[in-house]
Amino acid sequence: MTIEDDIAILSRVPTFAKLGFSALQIVAIGSESQHLAEGEILFRAGETTDAGYVVQEGSLKLTPDDPRWSGPSVTFGPGALIGELALVTETVCSATAIAHEPTTVMRISRSLFRKVLEGFPNAARVMRDRFAARAGPVGDELSRLRTILEKPGSYRPRLRPEARHSVDRQNTDMRVKPVGR
User: How many domains does the chain have?
Assistant: First the structure.
């Protein structure tokens, strides 16, 4: 793929779409292409990562490494950004990414992304606003959950029917205590 192809793909990814041509050009030039064979693992759940990945060709299947998970895997194709948060902060992968077919991804390191944001203050403002808009609803939900959990006796764990018979009823009135207090 050419730099122009990479810029075209990046411009279709919502996270990068409003950064501007010059910023996208630097991201495209500074990123690394990784080629994966079908079945090859890009990253595993539980690993830390310092990069986001844009699928250029092929597809990645994301599967949680949780033996209790019975839901389907999620597959992402060209133009998908995997690991957006890793572009700005250290992140632990919540799923394992496996090439569903021969796949090429663009690896965008956190250090590259930060340099782009430092060099393009308008792009940094766009990213800040994007993350803030997306974090707002999450923050509201966390605040609501915190209010519920801080009420004495308000937290009652939900147990699967098969586990209910083995729980001592005296131990189900749990209170959440902040770590380190």
Answer: 1
